[in-house]
Amino acid sequence: MTALLATLPGVAFLKQYFGEWKPISRYAGIGWLCFYLLFLAYAARDGSGFLFLDYANLMIHEAGHPFFSWFGYTIMILGGTLAELIVPLLCAGYFFWKREISGTAFCGFWFFENFPYIGTYMADARAQALPLVGSGDHDWAILFGQWGLLLQDRKIGGAMRTIGWLGMIAALGWLAWRTYRSAREDVSAHAAEQVR
Fold first, then answer.
1. Residues whose CB falls within 8 Å of the CB of residue 96, separated by 6 or more in sequence, listed in order
2. Is the CB of residue 152 less than 8 Å from the CB of residue 103?
3. Residue 126 forms part of a structural domain
4. Residue among 157, 110, 155 nearest 130 (CA)
5. What is the model's pTM?
């Protein structure tokens, strides 16, 4: 499988341009995997749709409104959600560029962790039952109203939650695979050293 992936032009280019991933220790990888599994269990049990990590995301969301206000009313309203997604993507890009496995996995997981609450917020566009911060205007009621999608709020919100869960699981799977690869490469290097 790895040999097949290595022959893909895009993967070969990334490897040639950025270099190899820095190895992650087996124990660090297992520790992070346990953290993510516990977080997913906590998220699955939480009925509110607002997790402790969402307090940080909420600050980023609120900062996005004035930041994007330069681009007009609609983008200002959308700016909160855009900021929630852009900040973890920029962080992931940085760690990807540095080839740091745990940092890239964390930021990828953080990016997708935003989707379930964004989906909850979207699904609340008609009911407007969620407590809001700031002006009290419901971003997604305004946006879906402008776009003629208000009656689809629950379907769109459900799709966003599904994307978030699939993305978090994919980030977890990628970290597990990279941890396994690092451990295997470490064992191979150790065996080769003993042969000398």
1. 18, 104
2. no
3. yes
4. 157
5. 0.87
Q: Kindly list the distances between the CA atom of residue 52 and the CA atoms of 38, 86, 100, 189, in Å, as whole numbers in the listed order.
A: 13, 20, 25, 41
User: 3-state DSSP call for residue 141?
Assistant: helix
Q: Which two tokens stand for residue 107?
A: 């930021």
Does residue 148 sit in helix, strand or coil? coil
pLDDT by residue (tens digit) across 39-54?
A: 999 999 997 777 888 8
| Domain that includes residue 112, residue range | 39-183
In a domain, 32, yes or no: no
Structure tokens at 61: 């969301």
Would you say residue 159 lies in a domain? Answer: yes
Cα–Cα dist 81/68, whole Å: 11
**Residue 11 reports pLDDT greater than 90:** no
**Dist. CA 135–CA 76, nearest whole Å:** 13
SS3 5: helix
103 within some domain: yes
